[in-house]
Amino acid sequence: MNLITNITRRNIADELIAAKIWYNGRLGEPDFLSRIYDLKKMPSRDYRYTNAYDDIYQHMVMNNDWESDWVFTDTRFNLMHSSDEEYLKFLVETIHPAVRGDDNQVLQIQEIYNKHLENDGFEIIQVSEISGKPVFEGRQKIIGKSHLVAKKAEIKKYLNTEYVNNKINLMNEAVSSDTDLAIGTAKELIETACKSILKKHGKESDPNWNLGKLFKETSDILDFKPKKATNPDKADTSVKQILKGITTLINGVAELRNAYGSGHGKESDFQMLESKYAKLIVGTVSEIVIFILATDGEDTEIIN
């Protein structure tokens, strides 16, 4: 059963048409649709052609004689009734960097989509980048999860490797269903960031260090002093106090991981933490990792 209603889909189509925003961006319509569908294997609506690609090319590239909203009502694509996943895939493709280069229009379209999708509990959010341009994903809204996905995109600016990306994906997906995995992976992400920064600065981490010690050693080689504050010395004192608080948070994450995170055997009657705690930990860890990576400032070689 689809959760994104026909009303929402029709409203999105109508608003795009009214704003004269063409779904295919800078691509020809058959070329855009070929990014999602195998048009050569789909039937033609015109008896003169054997496939959908040639059919669409004739009517929308050569003659342009179909209605402007034809794609939303064409039963071959079934956008008014397709699965939520297929429908969101279509929407996301319309604002892909390869399809649309106008950043302002991308944001305008995203706002249109989210305004209507919100009524059904869905959203289009940025999850990564290509050549400095945002890449989006459509998903059902989960309280707190949009923020985590945004943090994922920011972390990947600094640690954009398959290993780290997999950890972030695992952590974000687990916050609502597998909290011990989310907590365990959050701890591993801090370790990865700290060890990688240490190696970059020529300092090896000691395998006997606990997480608090690892974070302290990392903090000691980073320059956290504010450079543009009105009173840098006073701001530096405050930042140092904050860093002490972060160290306390790090130790708390380590303790929770030992008690509730993945990596340790559990009794048969073990009860996971509620998801709200996992979201707090994952969100906090994401902010801490971004903070130390942004302070370090440059790409870092990853230590798995």
Task: Write the topology of this structure.
Elements: H1 6-18, H2 29-34, H3 52-62, H4 70-73, H5 84-94, H6 103-117, E1 122-130, E2 133-140, H7 145-155, H8 162-174, H9 179-200, H10 211-221, H11 232-260, H12 275-296
Antiparallel strand pairs: 1-2
Textual characterization of the structure:
- The chain is mainly α and 304 residues long.
- The protein folds into 2 domains: 6-141; 162-296, Four Helix Bundle (Hemerythrin (Met), subunit A) (Up-down Bundle).
- The chain contains 12 helices and 2 strands.
- It has a two-stranded antiparallel sheet with strand order 1-2.
- β1 (122-130) and β2 form a beta hairpin.
- α9 runs parallel beside α10.
- Mean pLDDT is 82; it is low at 263-270 and 300-304.
- InterPro entries: Abi-like_C, AbiJ-NTD3.
- It comes from Microbacter margulisiae.
- Residues 4-166 form the AbiJ-NTD3 domain.
| Annotation, overall tally of beta strands | 2
- Which regions are unreliable across 5 or more consecutive residues at pLDDT < 50? 263-270, 300-304
Shape: elongated
How much helix, percentage-wise, in residues? 55-70%
Structural class: mainly alpha
CA-based gyration radius: 24 Å
What separation lies between the terminal Cα atoms?
Answer: 41 Å
Biggest sheet, strands in spatial order? Answer: 1-2
InterPro entries: Abi-like_C, AbiJ-NTD3
Domain Abortive infection protein-like C-terminal: 213-293
Organism: Microbacter margulisiae
Domain AbiJ-NTD3: 4-166
